[in-house]
Predict the 3D structure of the following.
Amino acid sequence: MDIPRRTHDSTIRDAARPPVADRAAFQTELDRLRVREKAHTREGDAIAAARRRLPMVEVDPRTPLIAAVGPVPLIDVFDGRSQLIAYFHMWHTGRPAAEQCEGCTFNTSHVTELGYLRSRDVSYAVFCEGPYEEASRYREFMGYPVEWYSVPPDSADRLIADRHFGILVCYLRDDDKVFETYWTTGRGDEVMAPSYGLLDRTVYGRQEFWEDSPDGWPQRWGSQGGQFRLDGRPAAQWSRIQAGRDDDLGPIPDGWTACSCSAHAGPAAAATN
C-alpha cells in the first residue's frame, strides 16, 4: 500500500504571505489581538461556570454495554469514579477501516492521556455504535489507550435519546444512580482535538473554505468530513499503516447488517444471518 509522503506542498509554497514588519510593529499588533484573546478566554470561563450550574437528567445505571468480557452496566464504566466522559463513536458495520468515520477517528485519536482526568475523579470511555468484534479490532489497529465499549441497539435508544452518534456526553454517579450533566456535538467536539486549536494559531489556519482568511491564503478543505481524510482514509490511520499495523476488521459478526449509508460509494457487503 502506498503511503502518502508530502514533504513539499506547492499549495503552501505558492500561497500569499503576511506583510513584513519590524519586531516592535509586530508586537504592537499582537498586543491588540491579545486583548480580544483574553476576553475570549474569560467568556469561555463564564460559559464553563454556566455549565456547572445546569440541571441534570437521570439515566438508567443498568443500561448494558458490550466489553471484552461481555455485557457490563453503564455504572461499571465509571470504574469507581464519580464522573464519566463518553464519546459516542459512529460506526459503519461491515466496512473496512479506511471507510470508518473520519470525524470520530479525528476526535478519538487525540485522546491519549487520561491521568489529568482521573486526578479529578473522571473516567473516560468510547461508546461505539457498531459490533464489539469489529470496533475492538479498530481500537487495536489505531492503538487507542481508552476504554472501548459497543452500544447495543436497545441501549442506544436509552443513551442517545433522539440524538445521534458523534456526541460527547458527561455523566455523574451518585451512589447507585447515574445522571447526564452535559452533552455536545459538531464543533462542540473540537475540545477533544488540540490539532484544531494549534492550527488556529498558525498563519494559514485550518485551510478550510469557511474560514475568513485574506486573499491568496490556501483554502482547500471542506467541512463535511473531507478535512479529516487523506488519500482515501482518515488521516490518522496513515501512521498506523506505516508502522505495519493490520487494519483488517474481520467478518461481520452474526446478527449485524453491513452499513449501506450514503457515506460509501460502493455496494455494501452481504448481510450476515
The CA atoms of residues 25 and 100 lie 47 Å apart.
